[in-house]
């Protein structure tokens, strides 16, 4: 069954789009990531122009994160206070990131440097996580362990706040700072950043893995809603019909992701997340290194 | 719409003026439909073109989509990494281009005539913007055409124009689902003794109608409200899914 998309100006198969939405929604509910890094290449593969793909999928991410957050909330796994603090940092960071991006663009190949350091950074984070969780899993699962990274200077920072759900009493500057840095990175890289945010919350803040996923999804709702409106206004490339098809699959997929996640313990989840982060790093580096099939490509022609 | 129609009339007039040898009796062609209406179920369509010739000869039909600017980028390798190295901008490129003919083109149409009338992809006039032009323009031109062919906007196959009896001809022109909206022109050429003896250009409009048209109009005119609406729909959908799953 084919449906014509009014903004993308092409026909797509109803069930293919539904399936893609469900797949990405599943990962979103399971890991607390938005899934844009998966959805964009899938949409490009079926021929959706990239401005439309990015904008419409941002809208779909709003839906699957809402669906995922509500499901996690039922299980008591969302730390709203932490989410808000992260969000404040994130909004400031992404605004600065957008500004920084335009500035750096003028300096030539700086965004290549950013891309490369991003790949290296993701690779290291993924590898460390992977090793850590394998070690924990090999230790004959004596209940799900929680990695704690305690440093004296972290405890001495001002503006201490109690985060009941996360069972933490730490400086609010820490989560706000992480939100800020991820915000800058995501604006420059053009990705949602869930897969940086989640490891940072586990390893830097020391939040329990179960709470991390719901809380990450909570702040992703606002980040992707912001992106949707911004792109709708500046590019007018949000295809409501495409987003609708994607989110129909996405909201259901997210619910299943949350359910499957409930059967896994913290170590298993972190291990799987590590594999995913490594996968993203591998994909990004492949894009940089692999010889393209055609050296020439058509740029996007935005209709006037 | 009125402005568009006037423009089309002007195009037709110009076409008639441009080929002074054409006489009304030599070539008459018409479309079954001047509007390709894009609705939610649109998956491409065929438009019938039919006509008669005043005598012997071959018929070539050229469909050109609206002229749009295109950018072609070339990747280059630096320090082992592929990045966009160079770009060339073409200000006016037919968004769609396809050819139909009653015999293989090379059998009756000399290259210089084909070039003059821009028949065949290799003869489309593609001029780069002066500030991006350089010596390797032919590589960029070829790449532009190749990439258009890959997404089926420049079909590689020459479609058939069939003669029914001696004078009457017809062809089914295929407009694919990814064809850009806008004003198309359908050029019909009668070729006799290795030259175009008559030509006629007819407009064809590809346009979204109904829901599709209203939605994309809304997205353009009230973009902020559209963005907010998109978020609202997403939020409600996420909430509904949660509701359904809690019961189930």
How is this structure best described in words?
The complex is a heterodimer of chains A (304) and B (248). Chain A is mainly alpha-helical. Chain A has one domain. Chain A is built from eleven helices and five strands, in the order ββααααααββαααααβ. In chain A, the strands form two sheets. In chain A, strands 1-2 form a two-stranded antiparallel sheet. In chain A, β3 (160-163) and β4 (168-171) form a beta hairpin. The longest helix of chain A has 29 residues, at 110-138. Chain A starts with a strand and ends in a 6-residue tail after the last strand. The model of chain A has no long low-confidence stretch (mean pLDDT 82). Chain B is globular and about 75 Å long. Chain B has two domains: 2-208, Immunoglobulin-like, CATH 2.60.40.1930; 209-248. Chain B contains six helices and twelve strands. The relative contact order of chain B is 0.22. By secondary structure, chain B is of the alpha+beta class. Classes of the chains: A mainly alpha (304), B alpha+beta (248). Chains A and B meet through β1, α3, α9, α10 and β5 of A and β5, β6, α4, α5 and α6 of B. β5 (296-298) of chain A pairs antiparallel with β5 (67-78) of chain B, so a sheet runs across the interface.
Report a brief summary of the structure.
Chain A is mainly α and 304 residues long. Chain A has helices at 14-31, 36-45, 50-74, 80-105, 110-138, 152-155, 173-189, 194-205, 209-234, 240-262, 266-289; strands spanning 2-5, 10-13, 160-163, 168-171, 296-298. In chain A, helix 1 (14-31) packs across helix 10 (240-262), helix 3 (50-74) runs parallel beside helix 10 (240-262) and helix 8 (194-205) packs antiparallel against helix 9 (209-234).
């Amino acid at each position: 069954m084919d449906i014509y998309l009014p903004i993308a100006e092409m026909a797509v198969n109803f069930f293919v789009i539904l399936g893609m939405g469900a797949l990405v929604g599943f990962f979103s509910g399971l890991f607390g990531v938005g899934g844009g890094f998966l959805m964009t290449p899938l949409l490009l593969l079926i021929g959706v122009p990239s401005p439309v793909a990015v904008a419409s999928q941002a809208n779909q991410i709003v839906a699957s994160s809402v669906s995922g957050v509500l499901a996690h909330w039922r299980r008591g796994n969302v730390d709203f206070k932490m989410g808000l603090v992260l969000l404040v940092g994130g909004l400031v960071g992404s605004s600065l990131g957008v500004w920084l991006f335009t500035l750096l663009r003028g300096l030539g190949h700086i965004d290549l440097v950013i891309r490369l350091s991003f790949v290296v950074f993701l690779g290291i984070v993924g590898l460390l996580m992977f090793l850590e969780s394998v070690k924990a899993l090999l230790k004959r699962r004596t209940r799900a362990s929680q990695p704690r990274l305690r440093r004296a200077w972290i405890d001495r920072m001002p503006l201490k706040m109690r985060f009941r759900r996360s069972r933490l009493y730490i400086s609010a500057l820490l989560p706000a700072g992480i939100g800020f840095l991820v915000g800058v990175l995501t604006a420059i890289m053009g990705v949602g950043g869930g897969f940086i945010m989640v490891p940072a919350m586990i390893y830097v803040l020391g939040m329990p893995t179960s709470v991390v996923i719901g809380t990450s999804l909570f702040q992703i709702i606002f980040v992707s809603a912001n992106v949707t409106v911004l792109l709708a206004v500046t590019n007018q490339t949000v295809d409501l019909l495409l987003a609708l098809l994607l989110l129909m699959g996405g909201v259901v997929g997210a619910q299943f992701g949350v359910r499957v996640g409930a059967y896994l313990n913290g170590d298993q989840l972190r291990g799987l997340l590590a594999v995913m982060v490594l996968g993203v790093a591998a994909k990004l580096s492949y894009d940089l290194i692999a010889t393209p099939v055609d050296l020439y490509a058509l740029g996007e022609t935005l209709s006037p | 719409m009125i402005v568009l129609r006037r423009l089309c009339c002007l195009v037709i007039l110009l076409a008639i003026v441009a080929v002074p040898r054409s006489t009304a009796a030599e070539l008459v062609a018409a479309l079954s439909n001047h509007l390709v209406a894009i609705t939610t179920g649109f998956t491409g369509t065929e438009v019938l073109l039919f006509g008669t010739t005043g005598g012997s000869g071959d018929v070539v039909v050229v469909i050109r989509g609206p002229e749009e600017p295109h950018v072609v980028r070339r990747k280059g390798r630096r320090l082992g990494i592929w990045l966009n190295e160079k770009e060339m901008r073409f200000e006016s490129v037919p968004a769609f281009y396809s050819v139909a003919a009653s015999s293989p083109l090379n059998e009756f149409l000399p290259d210089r005539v084909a070039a003059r009338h821009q028949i065949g992809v290799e003869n489309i006039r593609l001029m780069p913007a002066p500030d991006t032009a350089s010596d390797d323009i032919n590589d960029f031109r070829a790449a532009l055409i190749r990439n258009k062919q890959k997404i089926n906007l420049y079909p590689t196959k020459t479609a058939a124009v069939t003669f029914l009896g001696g004078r009457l001809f017809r062809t089914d022109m295929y407009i694919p689902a990814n064809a850009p909206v806008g004003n198309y022109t359908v050029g019909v050429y009668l070729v006799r003794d290795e030259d175009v003896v008559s030509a006629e250009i007819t407009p064809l409009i590809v346009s979204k109608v109904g829901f599709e048209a209203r939605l994309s109009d809304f997205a353009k005119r009230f973009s902020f409200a559209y963005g907010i609406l998109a978020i609202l729909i997403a939020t409600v959908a996420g909430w509904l899914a949660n509701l359904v799953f809690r019961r189930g």
